[in-house]
Amino acid sequence: MSRILNHRMRMSLKKTPSIVDQRAVAFTIWTGRSVLFNRPVPNHIPRRQYGMLIARAVRGVLKIRYLVLGGAVGGGMTLNKKYSEWKDGLPDMGWLNDMLPDNDQWDRFTTTLITAKDRIGDQLQIEPAPKIVNNLQSKPAPQTASARTAAEEAAAYEKRVHVLQEEVLALQARYQRELQRLEQENRELRQQNMLLRQGRQPTTKKMKRSLIDMYSSVLDELAGWESGEAGRLPRVVVVGDQSAGKTSVLEMIAQARIFPRGAGEMCTRAPVKVTLSEGPYHVAQFRDSSREFDLNKESDLADLRKEVELRMRNSVRGGRTVSSDVIAMSVRGPGLPRMVLVDLPGVISTQTVDMAADTREAIKQMTKQYMDNPNAIILCIQDGSVDAERSNVTDLVASCDPQGKRTIFVLTKVDLAEENLANPNRIRRILEGKLFPMKALGYYAVVTGRSRKDDSIQSIREYEERFFRSSKLFKEGLVAAGQVTTRNLSLGVADCFWRMVRDTVEQQADAFKAMRFNLETEWKNTFPRQRELDRDELFERARAELLDQSAELSAVPPPAWEQRLTAELWTSTHEKVFGGIYLPAAALAHDDVGRPKATQLKYKQTGSDRNPAIWIDPYDFDYNKFNTSVDIKLREWAESELAKQSIQAGRDALREEFIELLARSQDTDPIYEPVKRAAVEEALNRHQWEERAQDVLRVLQLNALQDRCVRSRGEWDAAVALMETALKEKRDEVQRELRDMTGPGFRERWLRWTSTTEEQHRRAEVRTELERLGSCRPSLAYDEVVAVRDNLRRRGVEVDNEYIRETWKPVYLNNFLSRAQSRANDCKKSFYLYSQQNGAEKECCEVVMFWRVQAALRTTANALRQQISNREAARLDRDLREVLDEMAADPELKKKLLSGRRVELAEELKRVRQVQEKLEEFIEALNKEK
User: Fold this and answer.
1) Segment 173-216, tens digit of pLDDT
2) What contacts 225, CB < 8 A, 6 or more positions away?
3) Is residue 40 within 8 Å of residue 157, measured between CB atoms?
4) In which broad location class does this protein mainly occur, judging by the first location in its UniProt entry (predicted)?
5) 741 closest CA partner among 710, 718, 767, 772
């Protein structure tokens, strides 16, 4: 009986391949290895012996087959029932239908298996047997032609293997996308489940505060920090040569074209910090702006790129090519990895003529500064389409991270490298870390574009996946599947980033806690009785005090205002009153042109040069000419200049009153004074008097100057006092000028041991001769000048005519003012005579002129006081508030005005506390997520 069974088994082996045979064939096609033997059969083994070996092996396998089939038939029903119960308890897995091959793919796969079976059957010379398994139909195997060579068979086999590898890569890409979607859904479900367990509904406000946003806010607080601990928090630093593809890699990770493009020129001119996080919408936002750019709209993308370019250009003003000012933005979107990346300007090897002289060194130092952070992850980007010897950044990376413990190497433009490279092993050596003089945690190969500006991220991603499915370099097993595509790169970088954050963040929190303790101790020892007010708080206090003092302007009493305004008006107008009105009118009244020669003073030579001069007034003062000239000049002055001068005097009075109010403050802190002075000065410079006020003042002044009648003795005495005071001040000024010209007098030379210069001696001789002349005219006649010059020549003093006339002006003015003082003194008691003549008394017309000027100034001061109280004080307060608002928005100005160790220490304390609090909040949230 056993012989019959063995005979039947041998016959079935010759006729039809079993299920095990067909599975062995499928395994051979899938893996490229044989189940029955480990190596291909050499061509020199005879075909008969080869077939016998295969038959014996199959016979041993068939024995096991019957045992398996017997057990399967016995427990089929039980297994089917258990499977049905288990299947009912499983969740819905309909999403796997998208991942499994469809009917067409199964048909192709079945056809491939049958073809392989035919080929193996031809080699073994086994005749087909009747079918045993229902789902496989056997066909008579066609006999192969004897002319078919082994090379053709090998080529066909290799082609089928390539097809299967493409299917595997496509299936892996679909698996990664589905895995990301499931991970996101899983995180959302876990958050909602946690909230439901606590008996609370999910709040949108708490969901928005993501972990990466908390970490990014800590980095924002540390922006510009000068301490060494500030730059030790982890971040991903993107470095590489210029045009190596750094920005493109970052855009592929962010899944949006957010950066401007340039044709061969430097695009990244400043560090760009990009915070990537998950969100329901794909949007971007700058740290200092509230606008959100919708990255799904091309118009918003264009605006975003323009804004980035504008910020970069603004950061490199002053002739610089690159800047260290950080441009911070956040990008949120579905499926984005959570991390913080800093894109740096590309390292260059040659400076062009349009760059600053220190551009290359500035880029190198900036890159090295970011990479020197021991917790920074270095994302080294290398262009795969150029020779490795042209790389500038790899040596820099190797110097900062020689062990490669925090470096990730990325090879870009691999599609161009495949086209240009003749030796595929070069890329393999690069991605194995055997070509560049640097080490790394991981090596990745990516394709980030096709050199087209208008390509979308989706089209670039599809192109990248097609390339890696069809690339010969990567289908031959040179690189693992996890080392390709930007998707795998994003996952790897994000994983490394969070691993670094979890390992170092608590250590950094402890460092800031120690820093805070040291600063608080220094404050207690240095400023024990003062509050810790930072720069902003100090400015707000100075602002409040200044506004309170500004409100006190309206509380100044009217008499104080009028007294100050009158003094300011006289200070601004007395030069015009003397030099433009009084002196020219008096000179015209004293002019003796046209009078008889007999009335003129004759200069008599007495034979002695030391005889004093005798002043004889040859004629009376011409009061009619004086009054007429004064009327004309006062009216011209009032119509043209007086109103404008009055406005300026009002501004000066307002300034002085405001400054005195600030000086009278007793309880103010001296640290506020620079802010107050700067704000008041700017507000006063910006303050403009109302335009209509000038027209009102002009009308009042013209009416006041037209009145020529002094009504009371008090007004008369005030006018005389003003005249005497003005004359005395003017004469003192003239005497000081004469002393500077002629030198000290005899008494001063002997008592103070001073001497005169040669020029002063000459001036003194000319002055003495002119005083002996005794003329009272404002200008000398020609014969008088000649006489003075001849007398000086006899004494050995040589001068010209112009020199004499120049010396005569102060001499005449001093003598005129002396006589005017005498007339003013005589007019003190002349009010009664003036009132009896109803203002027709002419000897005191100078007093009347000063009274008219005084009345005009008094009227002007009253009008200015009303304008200040009703309008200008409030307008100045408004200008002051605007200035303070502008100063509050200018941190550089506040830093300049509020300085010193007290301010700097308070600022450091504030920042350290904020960083520590945010770090502790972040650590708490990080521990909860674990």
Assistant:
1) 666 667 666 766 666 676 666 555 555 444 443 434 577 888 88
2) 231, 911
3) no
4) mitochondrion
5) 767
Res. 339: pLDDT tops 80: yes
* 408: phi then psi, degrees, rounded to nearest 5: -120, 125
Q: pLDDT (tens digit, 9 = 90+) per residue, 258-278?
A: 888 755 556 788 889 898 888
Task: Give the CA distances from residue 216 to residues 210, 277, 285, in Å, rounded to whole numbers and listed in that order.
Answer: 10, 10, 13
Tell me what pLDDT residue 716 has.
92
Helices (H), 743-869: 746-752, 758-773, 782-794, 801-826, 831-836, 845-867
Paired strand residues for 340: 275
Q: In what order do the strands lie in the sheet with 327-333?
A: 293-294, 283-286, 327-333, 272-278, 339-343, 236-240, 377-383, 407-412, 442-445
The residues, ordered by sequence, that sit 6+ positions from 258 with a Cβ below 8 Å of its Cβ are 251, 274, 284, 295, 301, 304, 305, 308, 329, 331
Rounded CA-CA distance 269/313 in Å is: 8
Exposure letters 226-263 (e unless 16+ CB within 10 A, then b):
eeeebbbbbbbbbbbbbbbbbbbbbbbbbbbbbbbeee
Q: Is 647 exposed, middle or buried (0-12, 13-18, 19+ CB in 10 A)?
A: buried
Q: Do 395 and 437 touch, CB atoms closer than 8 A?
A: yes
Closest of 118, 416, 79 to residue 244, by C-alpha: 416
Lowest-pLDDT range, 20-24, 63-67, 373-377, 788-792? 20-24
* Coil/strand/helix, residue 273: strand
Average pLDDT, the chain: 76
Asked if 247 and 299 touch (Cβ cutoff 8 Å), the reply is no
CA distances from 106 to 96, 100, 286, 543 (A): 16, 10, 51, 81
C-alpha torsion 480→452→269→389, nearest 10: 50
DSSP 633: H
Residue 444's DSSP bridge partners are 410
Residue owning tokens 């800031």: 512
Non-local (6+) Cβ contacts of 554 within 8 A are 869, 873, 874
Q: Which residues of 72-99 are buried (b: 16+ CB within 10 A; e: fewer)?
A: eeeeeeeeeeeeeeeeeeeeeeeeeeee
Is the Cα torsion angle 276, 278, 279, 280 positive or negative in sign?
Answer: positive
pLDDT at residue 720 in the model: 92
Residue 253's contacts (CB-CB under 8 Å, 6 or more residues apart) are 276, 336, 337, 341, 486, 489, 490, 493
Summarize pLDDT for 640-675 with one digit per residue, the tens: 889 999 999 999 998 888 888 888 776 778 888 899
Q: Are 379 and 497 in contact (CB under 8 A)?
A: no
* pLDDT at 617 > cutoff 70: no
Q: Which of 160-169, 477-486, 829-838, 887-896 has the highest mean pLDDT?
A: 887-896
Question: What does the block give as tokens for 305?
Answer: 């790129």
Distances (CA, A) of 469 to 40, 170, 430, 664: 28, 7, 20, 84
Q: How confident is the model over 29-53, as a mean pLDDT? A: 48
Distances (CA, A) of 691 to 562, 758, 870: 21, 55, 15
- The residue with tokens 């090379």 is 151
Q: Say which residue the tokens 């899944």 belong to.
A: 255
* CA neighbor of 393 nearest in space, from 416, 373, 413, 370: 370
Dig out the tokens for 28 from the structure.
């051979």
Parallel/antiparallel/unpaired status of strands 377-383 and 407-412:
parallel
pLDDT computed for residue 238 by the predictor: 92
> Which residues, listed in sequence order, are joined to residue 381 by a DSSP beta bridge?
240, 410
| Model pTM score | 0.57
Position 599, amino acid: T
708 secondary structure, DSSP code: -
Q: What is the DSSP string of 407-445?
A: EEEEEE-HHHHHHH-S-THHHHHHHTT-SSS---SEEEE
